[in-house]
Design brief:
The complex is a heterotrimer of chains A (about 190), B (about 280) and C (about 700).
Chain A: E1 3-8, H1 17-26, E2 36-44, E3 47-55, H2 64-68, E4 74-76, E5 82-84, H3 94-98, H4 136-140, H5 146-150, E6 156-160, H6 167-173, E7 188-191
Parallel strand pairs in A: 1-7
Antiparallel strand pairs in A: 1-6, 2-3, 4-5
Chain B: E1 6-7, H1 13-35, H2 45-65, H3 83-107, H4 110-136, H5 147-172, H6 177-200, H7 207-217, H8 220-235, H9 239-266, E2 269-270
Helix pairs in contact in B: 1-2, 1-4, 1-5, 1-9, 2-3, 3-4, 4-5, 5-6, 5-9, 6-7, 6-8, 7-9, 8-9
Chain C: E1 8-14, E2 24-30, E3 33-39, H1 52-55, H2 57-61, E4 71-73, E5 82-84, H3 87-105, E6 110-114, H4 121-132, E7 137-139, H5 147-157, E8 172-176, H6 180-183, H7 185-196, E9 200-204, E10 217-219, H8 226-239, H9 245-251, E11 252-253, H10 255-262, H11 267-274, H12 278-290, E12 294-298, H13 308-321, H14 345-348, H15 355-360, H16 368-371, H17 383-392, E13 400-404, H18 408-411, H19 415-424, E14 427-432, E15 444-447, E16 456-458, E17 467-471, H20 483-493, H21 503-511, H22 518-523, E18 527-529, H23 536-540, E19 549-550, H24 554-558, H25 578-583, E20 586-592, H26 606-609, E21 616-620, H27 621-626, E22 634-639, E23 642-651, E24 658-662, E25 676-680, E26 687-688, E27 690-698
Parallel strand pairs in C: 6-7, 6-13, 8-9, 8-12, 9-10, 11-19, 13-14, 14-15, 20-24, 21-23
Antiparallel strand pairs in C: 1-2, 2-3, 4-5, 4-15, 16-17, 17-18, 20-27, 21-24, 22-23, 22-27, 25-26
The chains are: A alpha+beta (about 190), B mainly alpha (about 280), C alpha/beta (about 700).
Chain lengths: ~190, ~280, ~700
């Protein structure tokens, strides 16, 4: 079983519903965005092309972060999901340095605007690095990740890439869905 | 807005300091111990132990960088793959060895100092090499994997260690002042040559190259000044003046080495995640 | 969420975080706590649309700063000293004060102002005002939102067809001055779906926005010059015989006159005015006219430029002459799902208001299309005139303001003047969710309930076409009550004619024609949906005096205005005020939206603030480079009226001489320090929010 996600960029309008659903689901603190939208442009006025690209932990097959983690807090679980055992993390942040996708976060209270209340749910993660966990708790009870569930334009498709009948398998094996920085063998693909 | 390389933001002043101090401290130990290899009884305990003390200070910088220092002891677990874990082990072994030497000196067990000293040499070599390997572990940051980066890290560490010996010698062991001045100058010169040669081999076309060039240039001015001041010291005959000059020169060299590491970390660029072909069907 | 979590309760309800879209949602509760808000993909109309604001409503619900009980001012106005009072005391005080002022100075001395539009209470508010007797109800949006384009569509097409594009059947879609991914999720979803079917997309916007990024043709129109663009396209279509001759003959009047007027707008001339390359205008006009059926999506831009009635007319005309009105895949006419329509003169009881009151309506003399009851849409008071009446006491003194869900201290043009008026008015009562900048200045503050906290119906004017969905209460915050309840309770105390004994009675009344009571509606599933009936007006005639689409408007002529659209420059522009343009060389558009915020709301919601943490202004990347501005730098943008400090957002998707500024921030980033409320559009009184002049420079970081 290999979990995979395919994001159709022709459907992503950069509305950030996924980013928000993720923040609400995990109660992340300010500045911590497990999934985020990058805006990219090409060309110059008036011939400009623009795209919105959702980025998050790619759950790579041979992750850079796992290799450098000194405590072994970063590990691989079922379906290829890369997880962080917060209890073991020492907060050295080398994984953040090594990640080719900038997908890892470390909450710092000073980043939060003073007029905003702090999220209580952050307490448990204090001092440790955090990132997208593909909503593993939801996967284990048969639900989809929060970002997939809310996308209003259905830009995100999720499934088991090893299941020949699944849509993600079809998109990936046909080559329609491509990886960003494919040398790291990510599990998140894109259609563009 | 544009599709650019992005830099790592986590490793800054504290990590640069840790890397510098572990490099300088272990270098200091290696160089000084080598000088007194066959006449250990003449070696100054203060000088010997300084090599460990400096690495210990570096460790405090690392601890202050951690989000959860209480999990520091876990940081050796993934030694099978992670250079950071290996570095924790090497540093710990080295410091324990240093503790052993300190106790041996304090309690007068002179006999084991030679054994511990030799072990210390081995551990120090590992501590010296670890910053290079640590940075190489980030496979996506190409700059840190270049031979030029590794060589200049090592040479700047060795030269900084040497300058610290020269700076301390006036106060602790004036007899080594002259030779330490010579070794410092040689190593500073070597570092200068390596860094400027490497810098000139880089172009200006891409952002990565420009950042790399800036990094390797950042050590040139402080090190040149340091070298010039050392030259003055050589031509002066008064030991106290020499010692004073060595002290100043050492500070400038330390600053230069720190600048280099800060810049190297700061220009740790990842290739862009999104590229232009995203817009082509 | 762990495997041993408490059972999940799912409640189908309707989001009203913005009030316009009424997206069907499913709220999940665990142990009585709202945990997540999901799109209801089964809703027959919204089909799974949602936005970050709706999703983050949980943080709104449990926010520590929510107003929880009524407050009375306990010190000088704006001092921040409050005394907690009971609902009875609060409502009694408001009722008694308003009645006393009505007695002493006439009902016109009381102004009822609302801001947002979030549910069934919006027209109840009008009803309340008319029943009370005051002609002076107004809105922060008002002449700058919905009203002008509504008016223009009604007098041209006989109904709000531009508000309802039949996107699911369109082959070409033209989005004009709107950014659905940020503000209209159901339309956004439908446009993307249409694109996957092969539909073509044209986007008219000075800035390349979320929807613009998906456009086949982007028309970067100079802010404020939209009418010229529309007339240029009309002319091109007529001159090149791309219009639907049959349709024009059968269903429209005034084509000859229109063609003559449009002939003044050659492509070349229009390209010079609008700064859009000729080829693009041509390409877009051709695509829209030929690749039919084509629909148009519009939004608040139409109400914020110098000629708000003109643009609504011009684009309605564009849709009409190409045969795209009341046809499948074009723009169609909204209908209710069978419930009592709150959008009628009948419901708002406008006829109960005596004619002398209609004449007393503030701003009605100068702006009759806004402020006189012309039986086209609902007349309202002109906000800048209201402010003047408070500050100067002319033409008569306004002594009281009752504001519900509005934040005029930040949201309307010329904030300093708005704040002056709010501070000066004798009595100010505000109902809101938070202690906003407006609420801070009140005498009495009432805690409103958010959409998660009351039972109701999603029947807003702009969203619920053929669709009626229930809203179910899932939580209670302090003593917060719905705005409907507030209106009903006040009406009781003031013995107002035409109100109900309770909220539920009101809801039953609205539902009556459907055969349900509110409880029955809830039990039956809480949703009614009818597919819109397309082509009814082609068969039976349009709701205009002639029974046809009036390209040439006799009524406008009667009221003293040009019966055909024409272009005129904004009050300040590189062409109308070239001297001023030397000091202020950039054309400014304000009111840029982002998906996380709704007007002035949302900055205090942690999850939303994280998406767009700081106020930003869009500047052309090349221009910025010339001015030494880098992405993210603090810049100062200034108009002759004031300045703002914002972060520069560099983009290639904006003209080098145009700057776009975000809306709804407070303090030095409030874009209404830049806008003008003294020079307003002809007939309608819209303040100019887009199409001004400004300058920009980098400031100390």
């Amino acid at each position: 079983m290999r979990y995979a996600m395919v994001i159709d960029l022709s459907k992503c309008v950069g509305c950030n519903a996924c980013a928000e659903a993720c923040k609400i689901e995990h109660g992340t603190g300010f500045g911590v965005k497990y999934t985020r939208i990058e805006e990219v442009e090409l060309g110059s006025f008036p011939d400009v092309k623009k795209a919105y690209v959702p980025l998050q932990c790619m759950h790579c097959e041979d992750p850079e972060c796992l290799k450098v983690c000194p405590t072994g807090a970063t590990y691989k679980a079922e379906g290829g999901v890369v997880l962080i055992d917060q209890d073991k993390c020492s907060g050295c942040k080398y994984c953040m340095v090594a990640c080719p996708y900038g997908a890892r976060f470390f909450y710092e209270d000073k980043a939060r605007p003073k007029d905003l209340p702090r999220m209580d749910s952050e307490e448990g993660r204090k001092g440790a690095v955090e990132k997208c966990d593909l909503c593993i708790d939801r996967l284990r009870v048969g639900r989809e990740p929060a970002c997939v569930e809310v996308c209003p334009t259905r830009a995100r498709i999720f499934g088991d890439a090893d299941d020949e009948k699944s849509e993600v398998h079809e998109l990936i094996s046909s080559g329609r869905a491509k990886a960003l920085k494919p040398e790291h063998k990510p599990s998140i693909y894109y259609i563009w | 807005m544009d599709m650019r390389a992005f830099r790592q933001k986590e490793f800054g002043g504290k990590v640069a300091s840790d890397l510098l101090l572990s490099g300088a401290g272990s270098s200091m130990y290696i160089l000084y111990y080598s000088l007194f290899l066959d006449r250990l009884n003449e070696a100054s305990p203060a000088m010997i132990l300084s090599g460990f003390a400096i690495v210990l200070i570096g460790l405090f910088f690392l601890l202050s960088e951690l989000g959860r220092p209480r999990n520091f002891w876990r940081m050796a677990k993934n030694w099978r793959r992670s250079w950071m874990a290996r570095g924790v082990i090497f540093n710990s072994l080295y410091l324990l060895d240093g503790l052993g030497i300190a106790l041996a000196y304090a309690l007068g067990y002179e006999g084991i100092i030679e054994i511990l000293g030799a072990l210390g040499l081995a551990f120090a070599a590992l501590v010296l090499i670890y910053p290079v390997m640590l940075l190489r572990d980030a496979e996506d940051i190409e700059l840190w994997r270049r031979a030029g980066s590794s060589i200049v890290i090592l040479l700047s560490a060795l030269s900084t260690g040497a300058t610290i010996i020269s700076a301390l010698s006036l106060f602790i062991q004036p007899s080594v002042l002259k030779v330490s001045l010579e070794i410092s100058m040689a190593l500073i010169l070597a570092t200068l040559l390596a860094s400027s040669l490497y810098s000139s081999s880089l172009g200006r076309a891409e952002e990565l190259e420009r950042e790399a060039k800036k990094t390797f240039n950042s050590i040139l001015v402080p090190y040149t000044i340091s070298l010039a001041i050392y030259a003055l010291a050589i031509f002066s005959s008064q030991p106290s003046l020499q010692g004073g000059i060595a002290l100043i020169s050492s500070f400038i060299a330390i600053y230069g080495s720190l600048e280099f590491r800060l810049n190297l970390l700061g220009s740790g660029l990842h290739p862009p995640i999104v590229k232009e072909d995203l817009f082509k069907k | 969420m762990s495997s041993s979590s408490p059972e999940i309760k799912r409640v189908k309800t309707t989001c009203s975080i913005c009030g316009h879209n009424q997206c069907g949602v499913i709220v999940e509760l665990e142990g009585g706590i709202v945990k997540r808000i999901l799109p209801d993909r089964e809703d027959p109309m919204t089909k799974g649309s949602i936005c970050p604001k709706g999703i983050a409503s949980i943080q709104l619900l449990y926010h520590p700063d929510r107003l929880k009980y009524p407050l009375a001012r306990d010190g000088p106005r704006g001092s921040g000293k409050w005394r907690r009072i009971s609902w009875d005391e609060a409502l009694d005080t408001i009722a008694k004060t308003l009645m006393r002022i009505r007695e002493e100075s006439g009902p016109e001395a009381v102004v009822m102002a609302r801001g947002t539009n979030r549910g069934s209470w919006i027209r109840l508010f009008n009803r309340f005002a008319n029943s009370f007797g005051t002609p002076n109800w107004t809105e922060s949006g008002g002449a700058q939102c919905f009203t002008p384009r509504n008016f223009a569509q009604r007098i041209t097409l006989g109904g709000m067809a531009l508000e309802w594009p039949d996107l699911e059947n369109s082959r070409t879609i033209m989005v004009w001055g709107a950014n659905p991914p940020a503000t209209w999720p159901p339309k956004s979803r439908k446009i993307i779906e249409a694109k996957s079917r092969g539909a073509k997309l044209i986007v008219v916007d000075p800035v390349l926005s979320n929807i613009g990024s998906k456009a086949d043709i982007w028309l970067p129109v100079r802010p404020g010059s939209d009418v010229a663009l529309a007339l240029g396209m009309i002319n091109y279509i007529i001159e090149n015989d791309l219009y639907d001759e049959d349709y024009v003959k059968k269903y429209t009047i005034g084509f000859e006159e229109l063609a003559r007027r449009a002939s003044e707008y050659s492509l070349k001339k229009v390209s010079e005015i609008t700064w859009v390359p000729e080829e693009r205008i041509e390409e877009a006009a051709r695509l829209y006219a030929e690749n039919r059926p084509s629909s148009i999506v519009i939004s608040a831009t139409f109400d914020e430029i110098v000629d708000t009635v003109q643009i609504g007319r011009a684009v309605s005309i564009l849709a009409a002459i190409t045969g795209n009105v009341d046809v499948k895949g074009g723009n169609i006419f909204p209908e209710t799902a069978g419930q009592v329509s709150i959008d009628t003169n009948d419901f708002i009881m406008i006829e109960d208001l005596p004619e002398e009151m209609d004449r007393k309506r503030l701003g009605g003399d100068r702006y009759p299309l806004l402020g006189r009851y012309l039986k086209v849409n609902f007349p309202m008071a002109h906000y800048p005139t209201v402010l003047k009446a408070i500050i100067e006491g002319k033409p008569y003194k306004v002594r009281a303001m009752f504001i519900m869900g509005g934040n005029p201290a930040l949201a309307i043009a010329n904030s300093p003047m708005a704040v002056e008026a709010l501070k000066k008015v004798e009595f100010l009562a505000v109902a809101d969710l938070f202690m906003s900048k407006t609420a801070e200045l009140a005498d009495i503050v009432l805690p409103s309930a958010s959409w998660l906290e009351y039972d109701g119906l999603a029947d807003s004017a702009q969203a619920t076409y053929g669709h009626l969905r229930i809203r179910r209460k899932v939580a209670q915050v302090g003593e917060a009550r719905s705005d409907t309840w507030i209106m009903i309770e006040l009406a009781k105390r003031m013995n107002l004619k035409g109100f109900w004994g309770s909220e539920e009675e009101y809801l039953d009344y609205i539902l009556k024609p459907t055969g349900y009571t509110f409880k029955e509606f809830d039990e039956a599933g809480g949703i009614i949906y009818h597919e819109p009936e397309v082509g009814k007006r082609l068969k039976k005639g349009f709701d205009t005096p002639s029974g046809k689409i009036e390209l040439y408007s006799e009524r406008l002529k009667e009221w003293g205005f040009d019966p055909l659209p024409f272009y005129r420059e904004p009050f300040e522009s590189p062409y109308s005020t070239p001297e001023l343009a030397k000091d202020y060389p950039f054309v400014l558009t304000t009111g840029r939206r982002v998906p996380a915020y709704f007007h002035t709301a949302g900055r205090n919601i942690p999850g939303l603030r994280d998406l767009y943490p700081e106020p930003s202004a869009e500047i052309n990347a090349e221009t910025a480079r010339e001015l030494g501005i880098e992405d993210g730098d603090l810049v100062r943008i200034e108009t002759p009226r004031g300045y703002v400090i914002m972060r520069a957002k560099l983009t290639h998707g904006i003209h080098p001489r145009v700057i776009g500024v975000q809306h709804g921030w407070e303090g030095e980033a409030n874009d209404n320090r830049l806008t003008d409320n003294q020079r307003c559009s002809e007939g309608m009184g819209s303040t100019t929010l887009r199409g001004l002049l400004c300058r920009v420079r980098r400031v100390a970081q």
